[in-house]
């Protein structure tokens, strides 16, 4: 039973619908946990790229290309979804795309660099579409004053989905290693497990979640041209939505740092501290537990102390995490850093999503979340590429690369100071 009441929800929204919405976070978290964070990234560097010096950079290039495609397409896609009331239909297509390409990763082996990069680009693209589209339902479900706790509940529930996929994968890996199998044999099976969990767990979303939007008159029949015209209008109105724009800039900065942690934590653990595959998976499992607790606890806390202040607290936490990771010369301090990262990850992502919902006009929610996706994907280009480039030019100095990551969180904290929540909410509620 979710720990929120019916009074936290908008009129006509039932608790089971919020459960269906949260199940999408549960379903898709396995992709980021297993493919991007715990298993396939290290497999890509160590097996697909055969441990070459450029392996980490190649991994970040694949993620950067995928994120660039999201940046170019998601804002217009979000505007089109608003005009045509098509969020749920597009969510279904993106879900099928991510599940299919994740399953195809099972066919990638040593030396299959271009195939691996193509499938990572596509799977991450479809994942990002789904993440943005499901976020656009949040303001339809939760009241303004309760958006933080509902968003936090969804994020925390999502991390349990990531733990399910990772746990099943870890159980299989332990069994396979006991049988003497190598990574080339057991990693592909974890991709199939992840795809299967994603598919099964997303079913409640499509059964329970309603599409409340309606096509917006003649504009709704205007196709892509009308969608991009609508998007251009929003950019022209940037002064009116200046707090949303400051939030986007802040999001680019701190999400760049988070993108590094998601994409390269396992690589750092294995390359710097000598973690084995099972150790890395257990580390990420712990991070997911901490992230679930962080998202849930901060979801309630941010409604009380304010979304902006809550986000600021988490950014300070991220800076502390970077310092701990840099100082770690053994496993103990790095495990502490991982727990701090988990607590901050769930809470900072939940707070950012809630703030974006507060600043989004009712008729433009998918569009504004498309712009939020633009910001987070720009971050996913800048952050990992910066890390990969630093390791490349310094001959594999991951410690220097993690220091560069800390600067993103400092920048995010400075940009957050420019955000005025009350002014941003007022701008969103003004009828044009």
The average pLDDT value, as a whole number, equals 84
- CATH class bucket: Mainly Alpha
Largest sheet: none
Element order: H for helix, E for strand: HHHHHHHHHHHHHHHHH
Low-confidence stretches: 218-223
Shape: globular
Count of individual helical segments: 17
Count structural domains.
1
The fold-level CATH name is: Growth Hormone, Chain: A
Instruction: Using the CA coordinates, give the radius of gyration.
Output: 20 Å
Beta content comes to under 5%
Annotated CATH homologous superfamily? MFS general substrate transporter like domains
| Helical residues, percent | over 70%
Overall structural class, as computed from helix and strand content, comes to mainly alpha
CATH architecture: Up-down Bundle
Give me the count of strands. Answer: 0
How many angstroms does the end-to-end distance come to?
A: 39 Å
Describe the structure.
The chain is mainly alpha-helical and 432 residues long. The chain has a single domain, classed as MFS general substrate transporter like domains (Growth Hormone, Chain: A). Helices cover 80% and strands 0% of the residues. The chain has helices spanning 15-38, 40-48, 55-84, 87-104, 113-135, 138-141, 147-178, 183-201, 203-208, 223-236, 242-272, 277-305, 307-327, 331-358, 365-393, 398-416, 421-429. α3 crosses α10. The two termini are 39 Å apart.
């Amino acid at each position: 039973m979710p720990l929120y009441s019916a009074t936290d929800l908008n009129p006509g929204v039932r608790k089971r619908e919020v459960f269906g919405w949260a199940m999408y976070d549960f379903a898709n978290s396995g992709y980021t946990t297993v493919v991007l964070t715990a298993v396939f990234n290290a497999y890509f560097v160590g097996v697909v790229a055969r441990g070459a010096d450029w392996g980490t950079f190649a991994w970040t290039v694949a993620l950067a290309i995928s994120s660039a495609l999201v940046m170019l397409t998601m804002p217009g896609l979000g505007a089109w979804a608003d005009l045509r009331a098509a969020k749920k239909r597009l969510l279904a297509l993106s879900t099928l795309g991510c599940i299919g390409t994740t399953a195809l990763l099972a066919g990638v082996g040593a030396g299959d660099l271009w195939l691996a990069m193509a499938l990572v680009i596509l799977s991450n693209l479809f994942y990002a579409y789904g993440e943005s589209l499901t976020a656009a339902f949040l303001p339809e479900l939760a009241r303004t004053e309760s958006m933080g706790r509902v968003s936090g509940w969804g994020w925390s529930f999502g991390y349990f989905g990531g733990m399910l996929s990772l746990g099943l994968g870890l159980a299989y890996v332990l069994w396979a290693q006991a049988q003497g199998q190598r990574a080339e044999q057991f990693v592909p099976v974890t991709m199939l497990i992840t795809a299967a969990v994603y598919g099964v767990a997303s079913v409640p979303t499509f059964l329970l979640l309603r599409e409340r939007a309606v096509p917006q008159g003649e504009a709704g029949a205007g196709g892509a041209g009308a969608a991009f015209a609508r998007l251009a209008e929003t950019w022209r109105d940037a002064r009116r939505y200046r707090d949303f724009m400051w939030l986007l800039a802040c999001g680019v900065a701190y999400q760049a740092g988070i993108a590094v942690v998601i994409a390269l934590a396992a690589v750092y653990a294995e390359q710097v501290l000598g973690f084995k595959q099972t150790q890395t998976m257990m580390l990420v499992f712990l991070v997911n537990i901490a992230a679930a607790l962080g998202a849930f606890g901060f979801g309630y806390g941010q409604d009380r102390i304010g979304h902006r202040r809550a986000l600021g607290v988490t950014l300070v936490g991220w800076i502390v995490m970077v310092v701990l990771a840099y100082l770690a010369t053994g496993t103990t301090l790095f495990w502490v850093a991982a727990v701090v990262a988990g607590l901050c990850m769930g809470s900072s992502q939940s707070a950012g999503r809630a703030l974006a919902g507060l600043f989004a006009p009712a008729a433009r929610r998918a569009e504004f979340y498309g712009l939020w996706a633009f910001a987070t994907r720009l971050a996913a280009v800048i952050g990992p590429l910066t890390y990969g480039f630093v390791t490349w030019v310094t001959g594999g100095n991951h410690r220097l690369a993690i220091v560069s990551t800390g600067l993103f969180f400092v920048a995010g904290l400075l940009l957050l100071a420019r955000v005025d929540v009350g002014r941003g909410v007022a701008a969103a509620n003004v009828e044009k």
